[in-house]
Amino acid sequence: MAQLLDRLLQYRLIRFALTGGIATAIHIAVAFVYLHMVQDNVFLANVFGFSLAFIFSYFAQTLLVFKKPVNWSNALRFFMVQFGALLVAQGISEIFSDINSYLRVIMVVFILPIVTYIIHKLWTFSDSQPPQHKS
């Protein structure tokens, strides 16, 4: 079983799915706790869920998935992609505002990974980026 897991983890898409799954669980857990304990506000629930999931996701995606160094340039690109995806997902969530709040959170967290993987692969962690200068 360990050999199968090691073999699967050799594939970037598998590592992305696993770390993304954990980030998604963080997003959902934080958003649901906010909805249940603070207020029924999907926007704020997603903002808080996104924020904590973002911190985990940046480090996991950078170090484990794309195997790149952590730096401000990548962090800014990563944030731009993730925040843009959040805005798009929030817009979609608002279109379906007549649906249960918990279902809308689920919709949001399943839209983000599809869009973000493609953009991160092609732009955020692209091998064609200029080398980072040490200051």
TrEMBL record:
Please give the Pfam families that the UniProt record associates with this protein.
GtrA_DPMS_TM (PF04138)
> Is Transmembrane among the key words of this record?
yes
Q: Where in the cell is it found?
A: Membrane
Q: InterPro entries, alphabetically?
A: GtrA_CellWall_Glycosyl, GtrA_DPMS_TM
Does this entry carry the keyword Transmembrane helix? yes
Topology of this chain in the membrane: Multi-pass membrane protein
Q: Which GO terms describe its biological process?
A: polysaccharide biosynthetic process
Where is it mostly found?
Answer: membrane
Q: Which residues cross the membrane?
A: 12-37, 43-66, 78-96, 102-119
GO cellular component terms attached to this protein's record? plasma membrane
What residue stretches are annotated with the GtrA/DPMS transmembrane domain? 15-125
Record's keyword terms, sorted: Membrane, Transmembrane, Transmembrane helix
The UniProt family comment states: Belongs to the GtrA family.
What protein name does the entry list? Answer: GtrA-like protein
Lineage per the UniProt record = Bacteria, Pseudomonadati, Pseudomonadota, Gammaproteobacteria, Vibrionales
